[in-house]
Amino acid sequence: MHVLITSDTVGGVWTYTQELVSGLASRGHRVTLVSFGKLPSADQATWLRNLANVDYRPTEYRLEWMEVAERDIEESRRYLEFLVREVQPDVLHFNQYCYGDIDVDVPRIVVAHSDVVSWWVAVHGSEPDDTPWMQRYRGHVTNGLRAADMVVAPSQWMLDAATQHYLAPKHGAVIYNGRSPELFDPERRKEDYVLSVGRIWDEGKHVSLLLEPQSVPSISAETIHESRAKDMRAVYSSAALHTAPSSAGAAQLSPEPALSLPKGRKPWVRTQNDLSPGGTTDNGPVLQRWEKRVDNSRSGATNDIRIVGWTQEPGREKKALPTCPPNVHLLGPKSQDELRHLYAEASIYAATSRYEPFGLSPLEAALSRCALVMNDIPVFHELWGDAATYFRKDDPADLSRTLTELNQSPELRNRLANKAFLRACQKFTASRMVAEYESAYHQVASRMEKVA
Fold first, then answer.
1. Residue pair 168/142 in contact by the 8 Å Cβ criterion
2. pLDDT the model gives residue 200
3. Are both 2-178+429-451 and 181-216+302-427 of the same fold?
4. Which of 158, 226, 386, 442 is most buried, judged by most C-beta within 10 A?
C-alpha cells in the first residue's frame, strides 16, 4: 500500500511520525512523507537516511494554529493537491486538520492530535473569544473533520474533545500512540532525581508547578520517638502485622504507623520482601531505613528535580528566566539520545500537564522504568490507570508532597515503576500502533472501493 502522510517538525508529532513511517516501511509499504512548519534539523532527519520506500518532501509552510498562516495554508493545500495527483497514493493520512478537505478523490484519515480550543479550555477554563482568526481556525478544523473518511485520536479523551468542540466524525477511532521499547533502557541503576519534560513557558505543560518552593512534611521529635518504638514492636510481633490497601488496590503488609502526613494520605507501606523470611526477627534493615527517613526529615530533604525543554518562548528571548528553587535544575532542550540517558537514570517522572491529549514523554519515562507522578486529569487516568500515582489537579503543594512520599518509599516507587513499564509494553508500543494504522488504512480504502 502507498500512503501519503503529512507531519510537522515542531513538536511531538515528529516523533510519532518517525515511529509510524519506520514501521510502515519495514512492513513493505511505500510512504510519501510531507512535513510542514520548518525544515528538520540534522538530528531530526537522521532516521530517514536508510529507509527504503520513503519519499520525503520537506516544506516550511506555516502550521494551521500559527498566526498569519492563511496564505501558507492555501498554498500548501494546492501543493498537496498537485503532489497527490503526481504520486497517486492509495490513502491519505493527514496530521493537520486543514488538509482533510483538499480536492482529490483519495480516501483519507485525519488524526486529531490536539487543537487550540480544547487547549484553551483546559488552560483557561472557558472557550476562546470568537475572533476572526478563531473563526477561520474553527472552520479549517470543522471542514477537515467533516471530509475525513475516518478521524483518529490518540485517546478517547481527545476524540470526545473534537466531537464536543467541532463535530461528531462519520467514523471515529482511538489509536494510542506508541514507542519502540528497545530504544530505552529500563535496567540501568536509578539515581534519586525527578525528571520532567516540557517547555517552561507552555501553560498547557504546566511545568511551572515544579518551580514552587517545596514544603517538606515536618515530623516532631515526639512523633519520631513514638513511631520508632511502635515500629520496633510491630517488627517483633507478627500479630501486629496487618494489611492495608495501596493506591493500586493491592494488599500490602504495613506494620508501620502513620506519621504526620497530610489528611487523606496513606502511611508508608512495606512489602513482604522487606522482612526476613520469618517476618519478625531481622529488624536491622528496617531500623536502617527508618533512621534514613528520620535524617531526611530532620535535614529538610527536598526532591532533586531536573526539567528538560525550551526555557524561553520564541520571539520573547529577552524575557528573564523564571526564578528556580535550588533543588530545581533547568537543563534546556536535549536530543533524543540525551533524553534517553536522563530517562534511564531518573527514579521518578513528573507529568504536570493540564492539557495532554496523549503524552509521549510519560510513555518514554515508563519504558525507562520511571515511577509516574501525574496531574489528576482524565486522560492520564484513561491511559495509565493504577500504573501511576496522581497529585491534586494543578496543586504544587500536593505535587511536592507526593514526590517526597515516593522518594521516601523505595518499595512503592519501584512497584509503580514496574507497573508503568508493564503497561507501556502491553498497550503503547510502536508495533501495535503501526498494525492498527494498517488496519485503518485498509478500512477506508475498502469503503471507497465499495462506493465506487
1. no
2. 85
3. yes
4. 158
CATH 3.40.50.2000 fits 2-178+429-451, yes or no: yes
Residue 316: pLDDT band with limits 50, 70, 90 = low
Give pLDDT tens digits for 393-418.
999 999 999 999 999 999 999 999 99
What value does the mean pLDDT of the chain take? 83
Kindly list the domain boundaries of the chain, sorted by start residue: 2-178+429-451, 181-216+302-427, 221-298
How many distinct helices (H) and strands (E) make up the chain? 14, 15
The cell numbers describing 255, all together, are 506494620
CB 390 within 8 A of CB 142: no
Contact criterion met (CB below 8 Å) for 223 and 259: yes
Please, are residues 238 and 280 in contact by the beta-carbon 8 Å criterion? yes
Alpha helices in 112-209 (DSSP H): 116-124, 132-147, 156-165
**Bridge-partner residues for 243, per DSSP?**
253
DSSP state of 189: P
- Helix axis angle for 116-124 and 156-165, nearest 10°, is 100
Residue 168 C-alpha cell reads as 461528531
State the DSSP H helix or E strand holding residue 420, giving kind and residue range, or none if neither.
helix 410-427
Phi and psi, residue 102, nearest 5°: -65, 155
Asked if 402 contacts 135 with a C-beta cutoff of 8 angstroms, the reply is: no
What are 52's three cell numbers? 527504503
